[in-house]
Structures are given as C-alpha cells and as structure tokens.
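Ops channel
N.P.: pipeline sanity check, posting one input/output pair.
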C-alpha cells in the first residue's frame, strides 16, 4: 500500500551486545503536517521538548523554544532553525512580556506545548515543602498561567488554537509524590479547558509518556534497558514527538480533552491484574 513508503524505520544502535537494549522505532517521514502553524514549546532545551521542536520544524511549523538556560537556547535554536526566548516557568510575572515577545517573533501563536517539567524523585517520607512548591510551580502553576495568557491572546484574536500538555503516566494512577500529583491535576485541567474552549474552536489535549530516555530519567538513548516498561525498554523522545505532531496537526481535528497515554497499556487497570 502507498502509505508504507512514507514510513521510515530507524534503528538505534541495534544489537551491540546482549546487555544493551535498543529500539527500532517507526516514525512518519516529515510531510509538512504543521505547515503554517506557529508553535511555542516550553522546555525546548533538551529531552522531549527538543525532540518535539526538531520534529515540528521538520513538519513545516514556525517554532519558538524556551527554558532557563540561555546558552542551550542559543545553541539549539541555531541548530534546529527555530526562535528562542528565555523563560523561567516559576516566574508567572514574566509571562505577559514573554507571550508578547513570542507573538512578535513568530507573528502569532497557534499552538502552545506545555512541556517543561521537573521531578525530584523523592519518597513520600522525604518530601520537603520547598521541593513540593518547586514541582507545583514548574509543572502546574506555570503551565496554568501561561495557558491562561495564551488563551486570552487566542480569544482576542479569534485564533482556533491548540494546546498540548506533556503530562505523565504517573498522573493516571494513585500517587504520593508531588510530581505525580501535579500530573493528575494537569490531566483534570486538560479536560476542563477542552470542554470550556471547544465552542471557541480551541483544542486541548495531553500526551502522558511512560519512562523515556531523557535527562529527567537518566536513561541513556544508547541503552534503553528498562524492564518495568511493558516493552522492556525506555521510550525515545522521538516516539513522543510523533504522537505530539499528530495531536497538533489538523488530522486530529475532532480530538480534544484527551490524555493520550504513551506507555503500551502499563497503567491500564485490567480486571485480571
Ligand atoms: N522523561 C520521562 O520519562 C517523562 C515521562 C513522563 C512525562 N515526562 C514529562 O515530559 C516533560 C519533559 O521532560 P523531559 O524528560 O524531557 O525532561 P528534561 O530532559 O529534564 O527536560 C526538561 C526541560 O524543562 C525545562 N525546564 C525545567 N524547569 C524549568 C523552568 N522552571 N522553567 C522553564 N523551563 C524549565 C528544561 O530547560 P532548562 O533547564 O533550560 O530550564 C528542559 O528543557 C516534563 O513535563 C516531564 O514531566 C517525562
């Protein structure tokens, strides 16, 4: 069938040694699915955000990445071919100027990807008030108010926009860590906003990745060994970027309010489990 030629198979360091787990992933060849869209990606200086920014640019989007590290922003934006602006998500007072400047650089905003996040990986007994507040500020409060500001722009300018949150599989199950609690709250926010803004033509969705090879997890993309995932390996950021591209594209125009969990059914509550 003709679509088969549009599928590219990519092998990441296949079969080097019996102790090294690698992956053969399938991604669509870029086909300008985001042509003309202006996309802001928070936390675009590494991990999932970087992979998404690369993919969105390849799909024809104008992209602006942000993060705290000005050095990384300068280096990556030049390499990827996108715009960049520094932003600390914990600094809500900076959002107005950030959005104004992002609109100037991109000529407008069609899509916001709330990707930036942190996890302190603590145990319940060792959670501190500072650690709790820091994760809530980065993973929930920041995306909440940035989205509020971008929605105002979209409503004022009648932009039929698209907001994508990067949640987590941890938001799907009961949790005792601040990280998981922020992601559960994000999932609720996604559904509420999607319902509220559907009449305005604005879509809101989330991807909820399983453990992926990024700086956050420390899993290297040269050895994806991770037996706790159902497929026995960590995911690659490029796999998440593929799903994100579909959700930002007009091909998913009837989908809003959905948390698309990307973990091969790990958190499904099967009756016989
Ligand atoms: N990796 C996984 O297994 C996994 C699984 C489920 C969900 N997720 C989610 O995926 C998203 C991306 O995570 P990742 O794994 O790609 O992590 P990562 O490799 O550690 O990258 C995190 C990104 O967020 C930015 N960031 C952190 N704090 C920030 C702040 N206060 N203000 C602005 N930017 C900030 C960082 O940039 P600067 O350092 O330059 O600020 C960086 O670009 C997060 O929301 C995470 O919860 C990840």
């Amino acid at each position: 069938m003709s679509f088969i030629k549009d599928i590219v198979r990519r092998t990441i360091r296949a079969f080097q040694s019996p102790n090294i787990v690698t992956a053969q992933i399938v991604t669509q060849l870029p086909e300008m699915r985001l042509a003309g869209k202006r996309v802001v990606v928070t936390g675009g200086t590494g991990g999932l955000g970087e992979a998404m920014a690369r993919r969105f640019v390849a799909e024809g989007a104008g992209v602006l990445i942000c993060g705290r590290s000005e050095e990384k922003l300068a280096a990556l934006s030049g390499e990827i071919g996108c715009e960049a602006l520094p932003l600390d998500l914990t600094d809500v007072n900076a959002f107005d100027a950030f959005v104004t400047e992002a609109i100037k650089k991109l000529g407008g905003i069609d899509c916001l990807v709330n990707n930036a996040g942190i996890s302190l990986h603590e145990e319940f007994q060792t959670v501190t008030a500072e650690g709790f507040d820091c994760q809530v500020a980065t993973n929930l409060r920041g995306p909440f108010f940035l989205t509020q500001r971008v929605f105002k722009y979209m409503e004022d300018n009648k932009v039929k926009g698209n907001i994508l949150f990067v949640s987590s599989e941890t938001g799907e199950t009961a949790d005792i860590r601040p990280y998981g609690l922020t992601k559960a709250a994000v999932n609720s926010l996604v559904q509420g906003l999607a319902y509220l803004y559907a009449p305005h033509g604005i879509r809101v969705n989330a991807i909820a990745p399983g453990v992926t090879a990024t700086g956050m997890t420390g899993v290297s993309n040269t050895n994806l060994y991770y037996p706790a995932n159902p497929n026995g390996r960590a995911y690659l950021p490029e796999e998440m970027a593929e799903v994100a591209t579909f959700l930002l594209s007009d091909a998913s125009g009837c989908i809003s309010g959905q948390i698309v969990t990307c973990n091969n059914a790990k958190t499904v509550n099967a009756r016989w489990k």
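N.P.: looks fine end to end. The beta strands are 7-12, 23-28, 38-42, 62-67, 83-86, 111-114, 162-166, 203-209, 259-262.
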